[in-house]
Write the structure tokens for this entry.
Amino acid sequence: MNKPLIIFILTVIPATTLLAANVPQDPNGGQEQMHQIEPNNVVCDSNKVNITVIYDNNPFEQGLETAWGFSCLITGAERTILFDTGGDGTILLENMTKLGIEPNSVELVVLSHEHWDHVGGMEMFLDKNHDVNVYLPVSFPQDFKEMVTTSGAEVIEINGPGQICPGVYSTGQLGTSIKEQGLIIRTDKGLILITGCAHPGIVEMIQRTKEIFDEPILFVMGGFHLSAASNRRIEEIIGAFKSFEVEYASPCHCSGDKARALFAEQYGEKYLDLGAGRAVAIKDLK
């Protein structure tokens, strides 16, 4: 028998003041469930956190296959997290093998949004490991959620910001026509924001991160959705990064070569070139 969907609706509450919270009322008359965001002293150890790009259309590590899409693995938090699954399960799993990553080592899966280039590898991954909780925006199609639960995995639906595991959070579902969540990692060096495509706007996703945690932003990485943007628009966005005092920036996937070049020019040694196989040790970010 298929397992029932497990639904947590995460509600916007300022993280810097939250120690406990009442369950809010759903506008339809019921009660929404939410995760508590713990106090500020709970962070991930930057000496342990590593982020490895498994799937990207930009090359980095020789011998890994590139294809349109994105996926990365986060280790060193309380749980091992796979963020997105790329567009092709075969490529995802082959790259994991080449990187020495066992699918069974993954404990949580976080999906940014429903586009194929971010969820296309999900079914094949679940064939290898279905003992995971899958965090996805509530707007995902019902048939996708049923595919996940049929595999034996649990679905946790995201609406507002909330905790994924200690020190790791969702921005909550953002955007209008395309709904998307970002992943926030709190470390003792500052916040890390990982985006899939940043369809709601990369600046807007940074703004949401600052609304949740009024803390320094160490690193923003992922797809920034700037392939079609003009030089002027990209420079405006880089200016916004600087105004938010983002220390390190790494556009990849759908960001476009022009944006990558301009970020590299403006950020210098604090620009990190990302592609399939790139591993970022947060301890190395000064």
Summary: The two ends are 51 Å apart (CA to CA).
